[in-house]
Amino acid sequence: MKEKSKYHLFGNFLTNHLLIFFMILLINVLLYFSFINGFLFPREGIVNKSENLEIFSRKVFGDEYIEFLKKKKHVHSIINAPYNRIIILLIDSLRFDFALYDPNYSKEKEKDETLSGQEKQKDEVKYFLNNMLNLHNILKNEKKNSRLFRFEADAPTVTTSRLKSMLIGTIPNYMDLNENFSPNENIQDNFVEQLHSNKKTIIAIGDETITKLTRNITKKLVYESFNMFDLYSLDIKSKNHFYKEYSLSYWDIIYVHMLGVDHVGHVKKTNSKIMKNVIKNFDILIHDIIKKIKLEQKHKTLFVVFGDHGQMDSGDHGGFSADEIDSALFVYSPLGFMNMDKNIDSKNLVLYDREILHRSSSPSDASLGPDNNTRGKESYIRHHSVLRNAHRDKSYFYNVKHTKQINLISTLSFLIGSTVPFCNIGNVILDILPSAYKTNTIINIGEKDNKKKNTQRYNKNQSNIYYDLLDLHYIAELNYANLWQINRYLNEYEKNYTVDKNENYFLIKNGWKQIEEKKSCFFKPDKEFIDNEEMLNIEKESYIEYINKMRNLMQITQKYFYFIFSIKKKSFIILSFAICIFYFLILKLFYHYSKLNYYHKSITASSLIFILIFLFIIVITFDFFNGNIYIMLLPFVFLFFLVFHIFSKNKYKDISRFFIYSKLSLISNLFLDEDLITFKGIQHQESDYFHNYNNRKDIYQKGSNKKFFQKFFGLLKCLLIIIKRSASKSASIVFPNIFHKICCFISIEKKSIQIIKNNKFFIFVIVWSLFLMSFNYIYSENHFIHLILIVHVLSSTRTCERYLSYQFFRELLLLAALIINMSVSFLPSYFVHDKEKLFLKRSVLNIALPITFYFFSILLINCNIHKLLRKKIKTTMIVGWTIQFILVVLFLQKINDHLIFWFPPIIYILTFSLIAFVLLRKNSIIEKEKIEDSYQKIYEVSISFFLILMSALQLSLIIYSNTNLSVMVFFYMTLLFFYFYFISMNNSRKNQDINNVKLMWIRENRNIDMFINSKEEIYIKEKFTVNTSVKEKFYLKLEEQRESILDKCNYLNHSDITQIQVYKLIRNISFFYINETDFYILSFILLKYSFFLTGQKFVFTNLPLISAYIGFNKYVWPLSQIYIFMHVFFPMLFSFIFIIYIFNLRKIMIMESFNEKDFYNFYFYPLFNFLFKGFFLLCVKCVTSLWVAFYLDFHIMLHDYFLPNYFYLSSIVITYTVLSMIILLITKSIFLR
């Protein structure tokens, strides 16, 4: 009955803590999904929609002016659109340099088979350059009808976010990234909706993304886009659909979205022959479409080609680097584009047409665009000679300009006769506006004999300045309408949401008033230009001044919208404070109440009902929490439940003690442990010791008195002590005041250092979390994390006081491995997912790693405590590992292409089956007769974790088979060195004596009836003897501490203080070279370290998407999601199980060594303490990251570092909490078998 009672108490303790971690998990999942769905960083949406073009125009200009425009059929205007059809070709991931010809790069290099792979790595061969020669020739020969732009995107550079931003004409919300996988059904006013409102017919072909962002597409010929390994079929189908639909005449807009460049980039990278072929195919397609447009007689068709974003050399995208945000925009028109007056402010030229430069002295400063050098030396610019040298010479074959993506839709809307979306903040792109004067026929462009006609006006009765004025009027008209809508949007936004009325706000308001006042001078009915040169020049100057004012105001307004969209809601601050308070209360409640044994009472049925109601509330509000801030109050409901449960035993009389636990923490940690760790009066006793590991003595300690070096260093130490005492005595006589001050300073310094040592873990948590405030740290954490781990290993080594020992050489090997890892991490290819590291070859690894893992598992299962396994269990596991080994080898060698799809799922199922077999058995997996009854359960827990680790070895090769296997070599070797480092024991006689005194006090003062057998305790007491004088000094010191705490914290009783002292003494038992605090810190650093060691980076652009296609060349839900998750989080999962395994080994060694049976104080509470401290560390880092992101500029947050860092840290917290629950569940199931 006693045993049952003991294990029942174990069950209560573990069950309660399982529930605690479960509730923590619920809250963190809630916060996580709030973050994912944009609750933290939302951009407020306006649901208003613009009117159709007729109504909109009348609101802007008035009825009389619009009626006047309708009569002027020969002039383009907001009512008389220049085009009746638009073809939009979206080439996904079309980076800017893919479309820009490089005259200094020879394609002959690609045909040279003598070039080695090393030369290709030096960028001598660039397959992605100079593949769009048809495009280049059109731009070179038809300058009046074609334009090329550097098309700048906003982050995040993922397709859904980019497309949504362009369709609306606004900047993206960072959380639009989530819509790349599940688009939102709440559709704002956008380009397609306005086309539908203006009776336009839209056909969508290719990728299906646009159909999820809009509703009113007339005809959909679309396909799913996540099949990344399908490089060609979607594009082939899209081309066929396009040619078929183009021949019909019912459409106004054809939108074609092709994915070849994007998919090749992800799978084969940018610098590949396949990329060259895909880009060439698009070049041919563009040329063919332009030929068809030239042959048209009935229609005026505008052709627009652009990329939604760029891509890095690795093929990834999603961030804010120049490689990712710079795509290409090409526009072709059968109508001639107007010649822009040089006095109109544009500042958007990237490269200048050298022919124009020859005819004029120098380009206008107003035309200067952004410098290429500001876009980063490591970007695509380094590949392109013209861009690389643009700071010296910007001349080129033709003008190349710059514009932002959000400007495209406002321009296309006016050119096709539609209205700009209500939330549009884009500006009209002046360079793609056609001449205002209409001609009766479309000029056949491209023939050399027509070039002269192309540069002349079409009515010889009017002067050129007259037509220039018509163009300026058309520009002014579109810009005014554009600015009117932007101002209307700002006014509406201001009515619904708070805006910051800064300097720009008042500039916008005052500027708009001035523009409105002058409106009547430019947009009045029956306005005609008199063909008088002097009067026309005066009109021209006034138009240019008016246009420049509007353009400047639009730039300021756009900049202001960027600013106000980055402002966080007040709810963010409330949520952030809620998170901080939540984690603080968790610290106080869980940590201290567990320390005081307040969790032994099981949770009642009524409490369980309360929990179910709590869960029901979460389920009910789950669909609404994105817009409901009150859901954030649920953490406080959870805390109320905990307080209700914990304080119920005291009938709510001492709820105030909850708020004073910070005082308890401070008081208990201010007591110096130095006096409790070292007593110089302890002498060796010729009696029994708790320590029964005497057969494991350090070989370097044998005959230590006979060693010359130790005698020599001992003599030196004595001499130093004599000199120190003589110097201090002389100083006290000669300089008494100074000596006194120095002594006080040294005393304070010693106490401060000791306080820091006592609170080492929490100080480390704070310091490491503060690192997240540094952009440089976040940016280079993949390098800094190595240094942090090395420094802490060195600091742990320094406190161990052993040199020239076996343990010292273990540390040297570990440090050597860590330094090698750090050195390798500086190689650029280390964080590229499809390249093996250093000299390691894939063909060798495919054979060597499975064989090594297999025989390593077989060897270890027959060593040390693993010999305790039952023969049937051992045989079953070996058979399972053998099947794993065979399947992995067959998969890696690709023996059968037809069966390769099934190997990964089978290996996953087999691995989890082996783990389930170990954990779900009702009988013990060890031979009980070989081990003492009291320790059977803890041995079984430890061996179970060992079997889990060994079962996961072969699985890791499947997880990393599509990326790189070499990282597994670094990962497992590092863990192996840490294994020996963590379990090294300190068997010095001095430590044994100190531990004996501590153990005697613990056994005399703890609550014996709680978890141990009192008969065993009495037996142990009678067996043990220690030095009486040392014992009395030690006991007296502890009694002084206890009384001092009781005086300052009178709400605690005697047993509470005793339990705190028991905890502190057990923590400070010197049994291992690495103490408990250092073990905790190194373990948690190792969890984070494992991500970077295996080539992961906390940025979205480094997600191993290729791992989603293990075993098959397509995206299969949900297997692909599981594969990506396992690739990212497997290192953490494996490291965590490994650390828990080490934790159990350390507890087995210390408990057997001291013949200890108190599982609560020596095993269960330290286990919970370990799990909680890890949770606390990660949560503090998470909260710090959240607050830092709040105070940073919007674009810095989107630069792949601060917010993504919070995203990943939140994911790690949730994963860690789930793992903690699993560990407690496994421990509970085994102890209650």
Automatic annotation (TrEMBL):
TM regions (residue ranges): 20-41, 572-591, 603-622, 628-647, 761-778, 784-800, 812-832, 844-863, 875-893, 899-920, 941-959, 965-983, 1079-1100, 1120-1143, 1163-1187, 1207-1227
Q: Read off the InterPro entries from this record.
A: Alkaline_phosphatase_core_sf, Phosphodiest/P_Trfase, PIGO/GPI13
Name used for this protein in its record: GPI ethanolamine phosphate transferase 3, putative
Q: Does the keyword Zinc-finger apply?
A: no
Matching entries from PANTHER family are given as: GPI ETHANOLAMINE PHOSPHATE TRANSFERASE 3 (PTHR23071:SF1), PHOSPHATIDYLINOSITOL GLYCAN (PTHR23071)
Which keywords annotate this record? Membrane, Transferase, Transmembrane, Transmembrane helix
Q: Which GO terms describe its cellular component?
A: endoplasmic reticulum membrane
Which GO MF terms does the UniProt record name? Answer: mannose-ethanolamine phosphotransferase activity
This protein's encoding gene:
PmUG01_14048900
The UniProt entry's GO biological process terms, in alphabetical order, are: GPI anchor biosynthetic process
Question: Is Transcription regulation tagged as a keyword?
Answer: no
